[in-house]
Amino acid sequence: MNKNENRKKSYAALKYSDFRFFLITKGLLVLALQIQSVVLGWHVYSLTLDPLSLGLVGLVEVIPNFSITLFAGHFTDIYNRKKMILSSLGVLLACSIGFWFISNSAISYKLWMIYLLIGVTGFARGILSPALFSVMGECVEKKDYVNSTAWHTSVWQVGGLFGAGLSGFIYQGIHFNTYILLSLLFTLAMLAFAFISPKPHANRGRQTESIRESIQMGLKFVFGSQILLAALSLDLFAVLFGGAVALLPVFAKDILKVGPTGLGFLKAAPSLGSFLMAYFLIYYPPIKKSGQILLISVFGFGLCMIMFALSKNFYLSLFSLMLSGAFDGVSVMIRGTILQTLVPDDMKGKVYSVNSLFIGSSNEIGAFESGVAARIMGTIPSVVFGGIMTLIVVMTTYKKVPSLTKFNIQE
Fold first, then answer.
1. Burial level of 411, CB count in 10 A (0-12/13-18/19+)?
2. Residues with Cβ < 8 Å from 410, sequence gap 6 or more?
3. How many CB atoms lie within 10 A of CB 228?
4. Cβ-contact 273, 321 below 8 angstroms
5. Using CA atoms, how far apart are residues 332 and 339, in angstroms rounded to an integer?
6. Alpha-carbon distance 72 to 84, whole Å?
7. DSSP state of 197
8. Which residues contact 307 (CB under 8 A, 6 or more apart)?
9. Architecture of domain 16-195+210-405
10. What is the pLDDT of residues 59-87, one digit of tens each?
11. What is the Cα–Cα distance from 379 to 51, expressed in whole angstroms?
12. Which residues of 181-212 are buried (b: 16+ CB within 10 A; e: fewer)?
């Protein structure tokens, strides 16, 4: 394949107008959620000075997320996905207004109101995730799934990169209220998504099975595919044990002593690494030896977590996090392509809801685990422990699931 043909293939997914609007929506959404995450994490830790409080932030978000996700997957496959997504974005917009109200009030129970609204955002995101994933698959033809996943990952990480980088400066007080900015971003995301044309589906509008049967179908599909189950499990345990990101406010404030601006850079570093990797994968997708590359990338992620924990230098810490993001970007791209390719359109919602339990919820559960481990073991030992556990999980998967090492997306 010559250079022009390779370039044309690398931009194949962007020829679909619906997919372009989808990318704009996702970029704005991730930008807003990343800013919200950094600012709330710093705010909560400043109020409590307790790393466990950061774990509680993850816990109060994951409980409603966990409780609704499987049901959301069922309804995603039979009802209007566009209305579900716009409604969920509306709830996130309302929560950002609620955070603004709390930040400008002098109420004594401010912390608990913050936790309450975080729980509501978890509920909305539990509905939003399977619906967005399902719509993404409908915006492009199946032959362009690999390329669309690479672009999706790239835009996702750009949003995370700028969101994390901007959040530290915004929190410092640059004459602009953070939550007003969040409200604007959620509104723009809703407007961009409104331009995506409705996607009718044969099963949409009629319920062919009960909620219980639908959930069982999604679970059976995932647990019946050894490759898919292994890929999800790798990411689950890597995020669960490698949740150093949840403790970044502690590192920024007490260990590296770089303040909220430094926290923004630390938060942005993994997204920068993921973005650079995602851009590389647009041109050179890992369609050969995909399983081996997945194992190597998760192993590398674990090593980066150990290096970050032991670092006392701000720039080495930034590099460690950036490298961890690059490894994670490979994992996300391969897992996303497996999901888009193997799962039928009429099951994408219910299967992705199971994926959300593995991956989405593991972020918050991992944050809680990190907070508890930091309280018991200390911040640095807890992150080292998490990195070592990630390495053990990879080696166990390598031995127990030999079919993963032989897996190729190309086939």
1. exposed
2. 287, 288, 290
3. 21
4. yes
5. 11
6. 9
7. P
8. 316, 320
9. Up-down Bundle (1.20)
10. 787 788 777 777 777 677 777 788 888 99
11. 8
12. bbbebbbbbbebbeebeebebeeeeeeeeeee
User: How many whole angstroms separate alpha carbon 384 and alpha carbon 375?
Assistant: 14
Closest listed residue to residue 99, CA positions, set 21, 40, 147, 57: 40
Distance, in Å, from the CA atom of 27 to the CA atom of 410, rounded to the nearest integer, reads: 28
Q: Which amino acid is located at 205 in the chain?
A: G
Residue with tokens 């915006």: 139
The pair of structure tokens assigned to 143 is 């032959």
Look up residue 107 and give its DSSP letter.
-
Structure token pair of residue 319: 């590099």
The amino acid at residue 363 is N
3 CB contacts (<8 Å, ≥6 apart)?
none
Average pLDDT, the chain: 77
Burial class (CB in 10 A: 0-12, 13-18, 19+), 284: exposed
Taking residues 276-287, report their average pLDDT.
77
Q: Which two tokens stand for residue 140?
A: 């492009």
Residue 89's pLDDT band (cuts 50, 70, 90): very high
Q: Quick check: 224 pLDDT over 90?
A: no
Q: d(Cα 114, Cα 44) in Å, to the nearest integer?
A: 8
pLDDT of 209 > 70? The answer is no
State the pLDDT at residue 188: 94
Looking up tokens 């918050």, which residue turns up? 364
Burial label, 113 (beta-carbon count in 10 A; 0-12, 13-18, 19+): middle
- In this structure, are residues 235 and 362 in contact, taking their beta carbons and an 8 Å threshold? yes
CB atoms within 10 A of CB 368: 22
CA distances for 168 relative to 34, 43, 162, 260, 377, angstroms = 11, 11, 11, 5, 28
Query: Would you place residue 108 in the very low, low, confident or very high pLDDT band (cuts 50, 70, 90)?
Result: low
Residues 51 and 393: their CA atoms lie apart, in Å, by 26
Task: From 193, 186, 53, select the one nearest 121 (Cα to Cα).
Answer: 186
pLDDT of residue 48: 75
Rounded-to-integer distance, Cα 180 and Cα 186, Å: 10
Interacting residues of 173 by C-beta distance below 8 A, sequence separation 6+ = none
CA dist., res. 119 & res. 295, Å (int):
33
Q: Give residue 159's identity as a one-letter amino acid code.
A: G
Where do the DSSP E strands lie in 46-187? none
Cα 351 from Cα 94, distance rounded (Å) = 29
